[in-house]
Design a protein that fits this description.
alpha+beta
Length: about 140
């Protein structure tokens, strides 16, 4: 059974991927091993939601053509800056992009729980369950 513990330069790690709404409230979570690049689970995570008519904000890691085409095919729009080495860079609304900090703020809130910040749980389902508990607790405040 995959426990989503990966080995990277920093040692054994787990990545928590999430989608938040315009108020910073979590909508979906996904765990991967620490060695998995951020853009790999992006479409799987977004498929959990109906993004039709939505506007997706993401950082440069999510700027692959496959992800952008998938978002557009779902009748949604995006603000994702191109990487510096992009062959065909596209225009970005930098004013709108500033709202991406909501994801970082959410992670900051749930990492106040040491159990989330350091992943004490052996099982992925136990860790993800506590992430849900921490998110609910922070939403209730």
């Amino acid at each position: 059974m995959n426990q989503h513990i990966g080995v990277s330069r920093g040692g054994k790690t787990t990545k928590l991927h999430t989608v938040v709404d315009g108020l910073g409230n979590p909508l979906a979570f996904l765990l991967t091993g620490g060695q998995v690049y951020d853009s790999v689970p992006a479409i799987d995570l977004l498929q959990k939601l109906d993004i039709t008519g939505s506007h997706i904000l993401g950082d440069k890691a999510y700027g692959s053509e496959a992800i952008r085409n998938w978002i557009t095919a779902k009748q949604a729009s995006y603000t994702i800056p191109p990487k510096a080495n992009s062959q065909n860079p596209w225009k970005v609304d930098w004013y709108r992009y500033k709202e991406r900090h909501l994801v970082e703020c959410f992670f900051n809130k749930i990492k106040h729980f040491r159990r989330v910040a350091t992943r004490y749980d052996k099982l992925a389902k136990s860790f993800l369950a506590f992430v849900f508990v921490a998110a609910i607790f922070k939403l209730a405040q």
